[in-house]
Write a structure and sequence with these properties.
By secondary structure, the chain is of the alpha+beta class. Helices cover about 30% and strands about 30% of the residues.
């Protein structure tokens, strides 16, 4: 029988220990990451037990009587250990259904974890949602991913940009000081899109300090001058490019090409994919064709990030 508890800080160690051994979790579900913005979200995470042993987790927040999994995260959903089986995962979702009804929650917005982040196949939740809830695909965003052990040839303009960077002596290395890159990133986003980075400089520095092996800044320089950079999130088998930006001079010198080339040849022995993230806007309705063209130029191909709406039938 599956029972549940709502998460609170007394369960922090138990939660984090489960995340470290789960088959579809990344460091984004550690409480040190989830809780950095707990002033913006009402945490409503759930913990599921079978025979008094923690069996599954649901990182979540509640907003306007909707349970989100989770608004502060790129992806989410039910987190499972290696022993979880389809029948018992269905019990977990029956438990969720009962819980949301008892708490008068109107609906669930469920962000599925893309399969490249699964250490083992973990699509039991998709089947359970299909069987137990009136599941509807709400959004389908397209990301671009490189399979590191089966790389495709770069497009001509990407190869040219890499030669330009090398010919001009552009070097790429790691740096723990995010301030210079954050100025470039903020300027680019404000000028081109009228927005700011999701994280402030203090937030990204805080998260890097908490997860120094997972959040890493690569900088591109020429003669010591900072020309661009890339913040990557390193998970067990995926390197995700969270932020990429370059100065006007850096763009002319092809520094982004040099950064991606460095990532492809960096020492992440267990990583199988480089994921560039979404190229869609307005809840997946608009495809940024220029952006996805650039990503595909590095040999990346499509990966879907799906969001579902689970209706609660009373």
């Amino acid at each position: 029988m599956i029972t549940l508890k709502r998460y609170n800080n007394t369960y922090r160690e138990e939660w984090d220990n489960f995340i470290c051994n789960a088959r579809n979790a990344t460091f984004l579900f550690m409480r040190g990451y989830m809780d950095y913005h707990n002033d913006r979200f009402e945490d409503h995470s759930l913990m599921f037990y079978r025979d008094n042993t923690l069996y599954a987790l649901l990182p979540a927040n509640l907003c306007d009587n909707t349970l989100y999994t989770h608004q502060g995260l790129t992806y989410g959903g039910v987190i499972l250990g290696n022993d979880a089986t389809t029948v018992h995962v269905m019990e977990v979702f029956e438990c969720i259904k009962k819980y949301v009804k008892e708490n008068n929650i109107d609906r669930i917005i469920y962000k599925a974890i893309p399969w490249i982040y699964h250490l083992l196949p973990t699509e039991e939740p998709l089947y359970a949602m299909h069987r137990i809830f009136n599941m509807k695909l709400l959004e389908r965003d397209i990301s671009t991913t490189i399979c590191i052990d089966k790389p495709l040839k770069w497009k001509k303009d990407r190869r040219h940009g890499l030669r330009v960077a090398h010919d001009n002596g552009v070097t790429v290395c790691k740096n723990d000081d995010y301030s210079g890159f954050w100025e470039i990133l903020t300027t680019n986003l404000e000028q081109n899109h009228g927005v700011k980075p999701v994280h402030t400089i203090s937030e990204i520095q805080l998260l890097h300090n908490r997860f120094p092996d997972n959040i890493i800044l690569y900088e591109a320089r020429m003669e010591g001058i900072l020309l661009g950079g890339c913040v990557v999130y390193v998970t067990p088998q995926v390197v995700h490019t969270q932020y990429i930006a370059a100065t006007p001079q850096g763009k002319r010198l092809g520094v982004v090409n040099a950064i991606i080339d460095t990532l492809l040849h960096s020492n992440y022995p267990n990583c199988r994919y480089i994921d560039f993230g979404k190229s869609t806007e307005l809840h997946s309705d608009i495809l940024n064709e220029n952006l996805i063209y650039q990503k595909e130029g590095f040999g990346g191909r499509g990966l879907c990030y799906d969001t579902y709406e689970l209706s609660i039938v009373n």
